[in-house]
Write a structure and sequence with these properties.
The complex is a heterodimer of chains A (217) and B (243).
Chain A lengths: L1 H12 L7 H17 L5 H21 L1 H9 L1 H7 L4 H30 L7 H25 L6 H28 L5 H29 L2
Helix pairs in contact in A: 1-6, 2-3, 2-6, 3-6, 3-7, 3-8, 6-7, 6-9, 7-8, 7-9, 8-9
Chain B lengths: L8 H33 L13 H28 L2 H32 L8 H22 L3 H29 L20 H44 L1
Helix pairs in contact in B: 1-6, 2-3, 2-4, 2-5, 2-6, 3-4, 3-6, 4-5
Classes of the chains: A mainly alpha (217), B mainly alpha (243).
Chain lengths: 217, 243
């Protein structure tokens, strides 16, 4: 599991891996929306939602390569045949995906919060909500990527399948930011978002492994 | 005698062939009676006037929109566990009907909302969760269409359906908990509490719900039968090519 995790991380960060591409997309999406909206009064109120939607899209962007590259060069077959159960290998790949997209997004989010004029009171809630919520994006995304691994040009289909599944995480994350910004307690939303992440952690390795077994048979 | 006997395609074809005419005629009679009674013979609603009559389409369509997805999830579990092709095909056959009913519920809801709430659409929990439901149906149908191998498609869509049902329930409560305020009234019908719909409107509503359900079963059965026949035709063509 550790070897697979390190291999995926190395692949993402070496030349041509495009590991931090999602981060660039996140930043650009986050900067384009305020330019599109114009005006600054409205910005602070929508900032939490804008950052969350950008995070969703950035995460989606790198998902279709999660299993596709390994499927094409045959290493997915080797992973399937390796001694650790496929569920664990899926978990390792999802963890590597989170470390290369989710974690950098969390690190970059204060910059976006600054440019989007988010209320300072909401900053801790934003960072916490991303920290709690983005693992669910990688986990659920792994299940979606496993479903579409055999499909030619599966990227569009993947977004159609996965975005509705991202809704609970996004709603709860954005609500936590909104509540903190308006002086309410963000913890109920954060706790529920944690619950969604735990459900994803419990369910999606099995769903993804089942889908991969079907696709590789 | 086990219930699994009916999962055999030949047995399914025999039983569903016998049941189909009853569903079709039952649906036709119940829809004509329920909608005719509801749309033309009930008294005017004291507040909403004629617009309240859309309840005879909106409520049954909304019920089917949700329950079709549960039926698909149930069929997917059975298909995955017992490896019965008929239940995969039943889930496949049900999906477009569910998507259509969800669209119908959304459109009739918007048409009803415009004169009574003063707006076509609000982002409130009930409406949002039905819209999410619609996207689940679209994704499910798209996955069926995207995968060429029907055996693989059956298994993968079943996995998607099961993941979807978990997340559909979570999204429903996620939107409900913090956006509790809503324009939508509570459920019109319930088994335990007192009904929220007056008697004159309630009876034709029940008939038209029965009509919608019978219509659903008629379409689903005939679509499943078509799928089974397509499978059989494909197998025969392969056999002929081999000889």
């Amino acid at each position: 599991m550790k070897a697979l995790l390190l291999r995926d991380l190395a692949l993402a960060f070496r030349l041509g891996g495009g590991g931090l591409m999602a981060l660039g997309f996140f930043a650009i999406a986050g900067f384009l929306i305020p330019i599109g909206i114009g005006g600054t009064e409205a910005l602070g109120r929508v900032a939490g939602g804008v950052i969350w939607v950008s995070a969703l899209l950035a995460c989606l962007l790198s998902l279709d390569r999660l299993f596709q590259a390994d499927f094409e060069d045959g290493s997915l077959d080797l992973i399937l045949l390796a001694p650790p159960p496929l569920e664990i290998s899926v978990l390792a790949k999802a963890a590597a995906h989170w470390l290369t997209t989710g974690a950098p997004l969390v690190a970059l989010s204060p910059l976006l919060a600054l440019t989007l004029d988010l209320a300072p009171a909401a900053w801790p809630a934003l960072i916490l909500s991303l920290l709690i919520g983005t693992p669910a994006l990688s986990l659920v995304g792994a299940a979606g990527a496993a479903l579409t691994v055999g499909v030619r040009r599966g990227g569009l289909l993947l977004s159609l399948l996965v975005l509705p599944l991202y809704l609970p995480t996004m709603i709860l994350g954005a609500r936590a930011v909104e509540r903190a910004g308006t002086g309410l307690d963000p913890w109920p939303a954060l706790a529920l978002s944690g619950a969604v992440t735990l459900v994803a952690l419990a369910a999606s390795p099995f769903a993804a492994a089942a889908a991969l077994r079907v696709n590789l048979r | 005698m086990s219930i699994w006997r009916y999962a055999n395609p030949a047995e399914f074809m025999r039983i569903s062939g016998a049941a189909l005419p009853f569903c079709i005629w039952g649906a036709a009679v119940a829809l004509v009676v329920g909608l005719g009674w509801g749309l033309f013979l009930t008294p005017l609603h004291y507040e909403q006037g004629e617009s309240a009559r859309i309840i005879y389409i909106h409520v049954p369509a909304s019920m089917l929109a949700i329950n079709t997805y549960f039926l698909m999830a149930f069929a997917s579990i059975i298909g995955l566990v017992r490896r019965h092709h008929v239940s995969f095909l039943a889930a496949k056959a049900a999906a477009p009907i569910g998507a259509g009913m969800t669209a119908l519920a959304l459109v009739t809801g918007a048409l009803w909302g415009a004169p009574t709430w003063g707006t076509w659409w609000v982002w409130d929990p009930k409406l949002t969760s039905v819209l999410i439901m619609f996207f689940f149906y679209i994704g499910y149908i798209a996955l069926w269409n995207a995968i060429e191998d029907p055996e693989k498609a059956a298994d993968l869509t079943a996995v998607l359906c099961l993941v979807g049902v978990v997340f559909a329930v979570m999204s429903r409560y996620a939107v409900e908990i913090f956006d509790g305020r809503t324009l939508h009234q509570p459920a019109s019908l319930s088994l335990d509490a007192e009904e929220n719909v007056a008697n004159v409107y309630y009876k034709p509503l029940l008939v038209s719900i029965a009509g919608f359900y019978l219509f659903f079963f008629a379409v689903m059965l005939s679509r499943t039968r078509t799928e089974i026949r397509l499978r059989r035709a494909r197998a025969l063509a392969l056999q002929a090519a081999r000889d």
